[in-house]
């Protein structure tokens, strides 16, 4: 994977005053930025980047010029996590390189405060800054028992889901925010599932624990926004729609190339979206100097697409959450209704 090795070289002492040196560094940053690489000079941490949306976000942030630290638990070196999926964090690093980006792919368990503190310490030492934090850690889907009530749901699996989907986010924010707050701006993106409107009511079909995790992530965003008031750091949440993750494609026996074949089995799959869709929106969001106007909100991939003019890989702009609210029960196809 491409890595910036200039930090390994001995630095000549610069005799100029610190203010002049800083001005030159800022000029250098501006010269590296371009419409194609608007995040040049920025440093990002994408926690939970082994697969799915997290992997795509790491790739698109790097494509936009950010130096990306991508983390996950599944590694070629140490083996898979308990999810027992084939994807590894090293593969994410290779995808970042293939996109022309730079960064590091690291095996980190975000339930372990010591590991996260070590990661943030390394970012501070190597880069001197952290501009973007994306919390996409979860992996609790395998423990979800849909359509089961609290007293019917496996208790150990449910409580572990809370640890994976809530504790990991809190640990990462607690350890990373001091570094984010050193800079003159900062962005925390909490990845969730469902808009504020959709999650306002209890989602009985997904099970008590899954619903609680996703509601808690929005509450984390609201709390961070209150505590970050008066700083230059913005916290918000983003939700993809029906994500064509690696496991979702496997469940339907299709690939990203022929995913539409699954619509025969599940007509509502027509509204699904690739991980790249939300990732492109987040890359554009991170480059927006006015991102503070979204503080405390939950933005959907479709809202980001409309705001910043990005599309999914097939040129469409799926609106999953609008479709679920207004169309799913009517039998009208998404294309006819204008939701794709």
What are its keywords?
340 residues, alpha/beta, Rossmann fold, seven-stranded parallel β-sheet, disordered N terminus
Q: What's the layout of helices and strands?
A:
Elements: H1 18-32, E1 43-47, H2 52-63, E2 67-72, H3 89-98, E3 102-107, H4 113-127, E4 132-135, H5 155-180, E5 186-191, H6 208-227, E6 233-239, H7 246-251, H8 275-286, E7 298-300, H9 301-308, H10 320-326, H11 334-337
Helix pairs in contact: 2-3, 2-8, 4-5, 5-6, 8-9
If you had to describe this structure to a student in words, what would you say it looks like?
This protein is of the alpha/beta class. It has one domain: NAD(P)-binding Rossmann-like Domain (Rossmann fold). The protein has eleven helices and seven strands. α8 crosses α9.
Summary, kept brief:
The protein contains 11 helices and 7 strands. It has 340 residues and is α/β, with parallel strands linked by helices.
Number of helices: 11
Q: What's the alpha carbon Rg, rounded to whole Å?
A: 20 Å
Q: Beta-sheet strand percentage?
A: 5-15%
CATH class value:
Alpha Beta
